[in-house]
Specification:
Length: 312
């Protein structure tokens, strides 16, 4: 079936890179807002009879990007696409997967239900905040992991005395995966979240004194988690050469300021989200394009993608 790549405004460079690897081009589309702020979406190339792949992370601005994805799916279907698959390199709202307090909405469920109305054949996501999110979707969800990709680029950044650090309890499984691939011991920071921007590190489990920490997390948002973990590690006697590895770089609010103040050797992230490009941080960006392009190529011809399902 003929393949067509359609992209929202979430990460055009990644969409271009994926299309490029597939020997294709992103379909032309118009995404605009009416004066009253309502979204308007139109796909300008024909997708009739095509196997359409919509590339759209639902990161900041989360609502706008989610809505674009829903509109693009609808536009594709109405334009006669034979099959529509959403490639969501970063899935927003994933942290709202349960109620922490009495009268909160479960945002992950709301957004999953919305995506469930879009008549998608399947969705492909990368390093979901929690693996159990798959159960929020009734459509098939292929959950890819960037752990091997990121771990394999660390090279000489991993020292004999490196220790892999989970900056909170939610990151323990991810950190175990890195510790296994990198063959280094694991330490865990006990984090308490005070608000959306503020966290506090309570204690550390594991041997960290005299070691070079590699802090791993699924995402960096405001940088509060990394800041709290790094500060606690330094107080506990870690070497002041910290490596941070995260699948998703949201980098919102005070993230740049917070991370700039830390003795970071490198921050290794993927391009699941479009980065501003004017950061003075020691950022190394690893592209998801090869992995996502290969996944699309295999889905298009109905071949197994099991070897890409890297999360353990
Ligand atoms: C939390 O459970 C996540 O895994 C991240 O640790 C967190 O969301 C990062 O946010 P921030 O950078 O704002 O601390």
């Amino acid at each position: 079936m003929e393949l067509a790549i359609v992209a929202g405004s979430g990460n055009p460079p990644l969409a271009d890179a994926i299309a490029d690897r597939l020997g294709s081009k992103v379909c032309r589309s118009t995404i605009s807002r009416f004066p009253d702020t309502e979204l308007h979406v139109e796909i300008n190339d024909t997708v009739r009879g095509c196997d359409v792949y919509l590339i759209q992370p639902t990161g900041p601005t989360a609502d706008a990007h989610l809505m674009e994805l829903l509109f693009l799916a609808d536009a594709s279907r109405r334009a006669g696409a034979a099959r529509v698959t959403a490639i969501v390199p970063y899935l927003g709202y994933a942290r709202q997967d349960r109620r922490a307090k009495g009268r909160e909405a479960v945002g992950a469920r709301v957004s999953a239900d919305l995506l469930g109305t879009a008549n998608l054949a399947r969705m492909v996501a990368v390093d979901l905040h929690t693996v159990s999110l798959e159960g929020f979707f009734s459509m098939p969800l292929e959950h890819l992991s960037a752990v091997s990709l990121l771990a394999n680029t660390l090279g000489e950044l991993i020292e004999e005395h490196s220790v892999i650090v989970a900056p909170d309890l939610g990151a323990v499984k991810l950190a175990e995966n890195y510790a296994e691939v990198l063959r280094r011991p694991l330490a865990i920071v006990h984090k308490i979240r005070l608000s959306g921007e503020e966290v506090r590190a309570q204690s550390i489990v594991g041997e960290v004194a005299g070691r070079a920490p590699v802090i791993v997390d699924d995402m960096i948002s405001t940088g509060g988690t990394i800041e709290a973990a790094a500060t606690a590690l330094l107080t506990a006697g870690c070497l002041p050469k910290i490596v941070v590895v995260a699948s998703h770089a949201l980098m919102v609010g005070p993230a740049n300021r917070r991370l700039s103040a830390l003795p970071l050797k490198r921050i290794v992230v993927t391009d699941s989200l479009q980065l501003s490009g004017n950061s003075s941080l020691p950022l190394q960006v690893v592209s998801l394009a090869p992995m996502l392009a290969e996944t699309i190529a295999r889905l298009n011809i109905g071949e197994s993608i099991a070897e890409f399902l890297g999360h353990r």
